[in-house]
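quick q for whoever's on today - can somebody do inverse folding on this one?? i tried earlier but teh output was garbage lol. tokens:
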């Protein structure tokens, strides 16, 4: 994508959720996560690249002992439709007997997060929870009724970018949640 095209995508996009509302959602999630995991010595795993911005802002609001790891697994690359899961980096910490909280930008169909959760269980995690900044509301989940354990914002079924979510690799840095015009 050329720079002019990327700039046009942002200009024409619909701002669905402004930065102040995103920050408020992250603060609320931090309180919920602290209440649930504050005594459990969990491992929080950032799902790269989408979970980077969300995880970084959330982690500074969690005032309890935890360990941080990251994974990089993707179905999208630079595309707008998912394909087979491609593992780039698997968890590095020992997950045996631990509570794991996966942190990602979005729960859409849930295929990627479900596969990552399965891998964490295979590696011995006692419990695997999911925390996402955005949860899309639709009926195409990999498991009917699938929901994140912690979610910041709920949106309709549109193609989103900003705050970690990307459009063809761009605009993860947009300061809010945007929907691509026409998608």
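ok took a stab at it. sequence:
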């Amino acid at each position: 994508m050329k720079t002019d095209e990327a700039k046009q995508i942002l200009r024409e996009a619909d701002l669905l959720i402004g930065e102040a509302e995103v920050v408020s959602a992250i603060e609320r999630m931090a309180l919920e996560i602290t209440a649930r995991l504050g005594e459990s010595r969990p491992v929080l795993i950032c799902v790269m690249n989408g979970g980077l911005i969300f995880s970084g802002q959330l982690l500074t609001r969690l005032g309890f002992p935890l360990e941080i790891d990251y994974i990089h697994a993707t179905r999208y690359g630079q595309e707008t439709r998912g394909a087979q899961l491609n593992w780039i980096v698997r968890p590095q910490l020992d997950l045996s007997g631990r509570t794991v909280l996966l942190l990602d930008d979005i729960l859409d169909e849930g295929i990627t997060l479900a596969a990552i959760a399965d891998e964490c269980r295979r590696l011995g995690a006692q419990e695997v929870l999911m925390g996402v900044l955005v949860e899309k509301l639709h009926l195409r989940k990999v498991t009917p009724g699938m929901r994140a354990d912690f979610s910041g914002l709920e949106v309709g079924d549109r193609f989103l970018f900003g705050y970690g979510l990307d459009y063809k690799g761009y605009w993860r840095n947009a300061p809010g949640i945007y929907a691509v015009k026409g998608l």
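fwiw The mean pLDDT is 92. also Residues 19-37 form the longest helix (19 residues). so keep that in mind when u check it
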